[in-house]
Design brief:
It is built from 19 helices and 26 strands. By secondary structure, it is an alpha/beta fold. The longest helix has 17 residues, at 300-316. It is globular. Bound molecules: 1-deoxynojirimycin (NOJ). Residues 72, 116, 169, 216, 248-249, 456 line the site of 1-deoxynojirimycin (NOJ).
């Protein structure tokens, strides 16, 4: 009621003000707030300034409406956690929720009350720089982990201490930009959109996310910020979303750049008509809404509804009662507990991709000396990753520092950067790196990408290791010393050129503040790697998009019906070879599949069993398997449940993730894992866009990767 009362007192200008988000550094910000022309401020994180802005809003504006203070708190505020793609590799919703909670608490202490996260754009294209900010290729995994982030940011109550409003972004399809190039065009058939891209957004909604952000990109010819289907039909009508939608940065103004509208006024009209409640950064609402109302093109009721959505969130956050922030009421930034959580997250994010002859873990007892090489071994800034925005390099614990701390005098550590940056083509430092490798018992190489090579607007057409890092690896490998490659990167890289030159590969993404201690402990076996890939690793860029939940096609490839280019005879006449779907030079499999990741132990899966092999619609099926740690060390395993719906009104993927559990077992220990699956969880959108579970035959797998083969079968019967 209070909101309606407030609304009834507002002038049109004040209403439009609530719908405007202004950049923190703007010259006339105070005046704008005083005049009621600003509803939200983005990018102001100095707590004194934020408090002063809130004071002006509360005391000097006519109606005393507090401000939403928005910031991209994406993977930590001051304590930087792994990039979201790295966090997704942990497959650990509890850890991810905790990371978001800590980010929220730290950001709250600076007066931030709204974050633009989680980003839950499904992406199957590692060229896209924003894959770093995503939770990977799979709608189920992304949905579960995105919901965990929402819960972490928002807490139990939005007005609780340290809770901030979350924003599910970018609605929708942004992860499918053509050629993985940021801001590019997106075309996704409605069926695919609903079955894949929209699923995580629906889960975020069910998790209670306060806001959504419209994407920069166009979708099937209509830019998201004016897309009636997305914003009205799906979000408001079908999903009954009651919160508010913010545009992306100037994405309303850019409607005319897309060629969808002729000018700013038309852009404002188009965005209001689909219910984009708040405009980020650009000023088309401020400049044109009055005229649009006068001309009868926009109705006052539309404006009122949007303003109500915004005011409601301000009430829910408790800002009317207390808009001010007293940092001393919050735990210290970057405190020991936050660092511990960041370390746990970084550790569980690392994926062991290769470990020949059990090169890892290294053992202090068996090493006299260790060569540490690479541009990312001792760079506190680069390890933070793309949204290290508020992070500070000096808080970072680097890998070199952690190795020194861990090994002390027991192992001699020799260090050479080898190459100035990840992009450098200068080989002047190579000789020194080769020399210390020759002098040492083993080599650790920290290579990958600087943080600037991924993230918004940082896309790559070639996703090999940049610069001359591969050349450096080749020269070090020529020494014959055992080499462990630790890759710090914002995306899956194509590792084909180097993978056979090294003995082990630990993929660490950009691990954040605590990269060093997390990785050093893994390298020396204090803990076993337990991460699994949230995205497939291509062998070559030309395989993109490559993902496990592909369709079977009419001509599925197998190892028996493909030919490699090198196997074709010199004067071969034109043939259809194996007549299946593959590349002559790259086959059909990824270098590493979704869900894959090694451990220092080995896990055995046996005895897959079902509660019933014939069920009816509405039933819940239980699927069991025995997981046994048959290796020598205690470790965690991510147990994954996949299904295939064999026949569908629209073709179904060859595998779909439907559940996962992270389980810790001691050597020799076993456990029966139990998944339950309600038939509703097998529903998909059919040709008529109805979401239905179809009776019929299904395959079900339990295993430690998407290429698991431990399978059973069940049937959903047709009700009489
Ligand atoms: C543009 C990005 O696309 C979006 O994700 C971000 O939240 C806004 N800028 C605000 O910085």
């Amino acid at each position: 009621m209070r909101i309606k009362e407030l609304l009834s007192q507002m002038t049109l200008a004040e209403k439009i003000g609530q719908m405007s988000q202004v950049n923190g550094g703007s010259w006339n910000l105070h005046q704008g707030i005083r005049e009621g022309k600003v509803g939200s401020v983005i990018n102001e994180v100095n707590v004194e300034t934020v408090n002063e802005l809130q004071r002006v809003a509360m005391e000097e504006s006519r109606l005393g409406i507090p401000l939403l203070i928005g910031r991209d708190v994406i993977h930590g505020f001051k304590t930087i956690f792994p990039i979201p793609l790295g966090q997704a590799a942990s497959w650990n919703p509890k850890l991810i929720k905790e990371g978001a909670r800590i980010a929220a608490v730290e950001a709250s202490s600076a007066g931030v009350n709204w974050t633009f996260a989680p980003m839950i754009d499904i992406t199957r294209d590692p060229r896209w720089g924003r894959i770093a900010e995503s939770l990977g290729e799979d709608p189920y995994l992304c949905g579960e982990l995105g919901a965990a982030m929402v819960a972490g940011f928002q807490g139990d109550e939005l007005n609780g201490k340290g809770a901030i409003a979350a924003c599910a972004k970018h609605l929708a399809g942004y992860g499918a930009v053509e050629s993985g190039m940021d801001y590019n065009t997106v075309n996704i058939p409605e069926n695919e959109l609903r079955n894949v891209y929209l699923r995580p957004f629906k889960k975020a909604l069910d998790a209670g996310v306060a806001t959504f952000m419209s994407s920069f990109s166009d979708l099937n010819g209509v830019p998201a910020s004016a897309n009636e289907f997305l914003m009205k039909q799906v979000l408001r009508k079908e999903w009954d979303f009651k919160g508010f939608v913010v545009s992306d940065w100037e994405s309303i103004k850019e409607l005319s750049v897309h060629g969808f509208t002729a000018n700013d006024k038309e852009s404002a009209l188009a965005a209001v008509n689909v219910g984009i409640d708040m405009e980020m950064a650009s000023r088309t609402y401020t400049d044109h809404m009055g005229a649009l109302l006068d001309e009868g093109k926009v109705q006052l009721q539309q404006i009122d509804d949007m303003v109500l959505n915004i005011l409601k969130l301000k009430f829910q956050l408790g800002l009317f009662e207390n808009p001010y922030t007293n940092p001393s009421e919050f735990p210290r930034l970057v405190n020991a507990q936050h660092l511990q959580a960041a370390k746990a997250s970084a550790q569980e994010s690392c994926v062991l991709l290769k470990n020949d002859r059990q090169t890892l873990p290294l053992s202090k007892q068996h090493l006299n000396s260790l060569a540490v090489i690479g541009p990312l071994a001792d760079d506190g800034y680069e390890q933070m990753g793309t949204w290290g925005f508020d992070g500070v390099s000096r808080h970072s614990h680097t890998c070199l520092q952690a190795l020194h701390a861990q090994l002390g005098d027991e192992v001699e550590v020799r260090w050479a950067r080898g190459i100035e940056t990840s992009r450098s083509k200068n080989q002047d430092e190579f000789a020194q790196a080769v020399q210390i490798a020759q002098q040492s018992d083993a080599v650790l190489m920290f290579v990958g990408e600087e943080s600037i090579l991924s993230g918004e607007a940082h896309c790559r057409a070639d996703i090999d290791l940049p610069g001359h890092q591969a050349e450096l690896i080749e020269q070090v490998a020529a020494t014959g010393k055992p080499i462990v490659l630790v890759v710090l990167a914002g995306r899956p890289l194509t590792l084909g050129r180097v993978i056979d030159k090294v003995d082990a590969v630990l993929y660490a993404w950009h691990p954040g503040t605590m990269a060093g201690p997390a990785i050093a402990e893994l390298l020396f076996g204090v803990e076993s790697p337990s991460g699994k890939l949230p995205v497939s690793f291509p062998r070559a860029v030309g395989q993109i998009p490559i993902y496990y939940a592909k369709k079977n096609t009419g001509r599925p490839p197998s190892h028996d019906n493909i030919t490699h280019i090198d196997e074709i005879d010199g004067n071969a006449v034109q043939t259809s070879l194996g007549m299946s779907s593959f590349h002559l030079d790259a086959g059909f499999t990824p270098l590493f599949p979704f869900g894959f990741g090694l451990s220092y132990s080995q896990f055995e899966y046996t005895d897959i069993k079902l509660s019933n092999s014939h069920i009816s619609l509405g039933d819940t099926l239980h699927i069991y398997a025995t997981l046994r740690n048959v290796g020598a060390v205690e470790a965690q395993e991510v147990v994954q449940l996949y299904i295939r719906d064999l026949v569908g009104n629209v073709t179904r993927p060859v595998k779909e993730l439907k559940g996962f559990q992270k389980i810790r077992l001691k050597p020799g220990q076993d456990q029966t894992v139990n998944f339950s699956l309600h038939t509703d969880e097998l529903a998909f959108f059919n040709q008529k866009m109805q979401e239905l579970t179809e009776p019929g035959d299904f395959h079900v797998w339990i295993g430690g990767s998407s290429d698991t083969e431990l399978r059973s079968e069940f049937t959903i019967g047709v009700d009489e």
